[in-house]
Sequence to fold (155 residues):
Amino acid sequence: MLWRKCFCTLLVLFTLPVATHAQEALLPGPTAFVLIARLHALPGQAEQVIALSGAVDKKVEAGEPGMLLHTFDRDPGDSQGFIWTEVYENSEALIFHLNNADLGAYLAAVSPLLDEFTVELYGAVSEDAVAALRATGTPTTHYPNVLGYVRDLTP
Fold:
């Protein structure tokens, strides 16, 4: 009887669906991903960059529900260096962000205060979203997803 119980347990275990999503690439477009924007202020301009960034942060929070995380952090090794960390719900949320007039005004105001501005995309981002970002003229590197998962946090 013991062997039958063990066999049945193994049979059940091997017939359960296996979560292979952690071993496969995510589909581009419908999943969350990360954007890192690196900024470096010209000498004496860091406080103005912070002020402009704080203002646009509030506008993005109010007007972009697809922006799941939006933080502005100082480089611990360089007081003139800053990093935007952004998590988007999906590729459409990035395209929406790029078309946000508040973002355009921010970039027009902050760009003259910077000597560096680059963007890195991490994850399964659609080709359309990557192209839209590159069309802005911002130096962009996309690190395509090879494997992983996005946890579903819906209740």
Q: What stands out?
A: The beta strands are 33-41, 67-74, 81-88, 114-123, 140-144. The first strand starts at residue 33 and ends at 41. The domain at 25-144 is CATH 3.30.70.100 (Alpha-Beta Plaits). DSSP finds five helices and five strands in the chain.
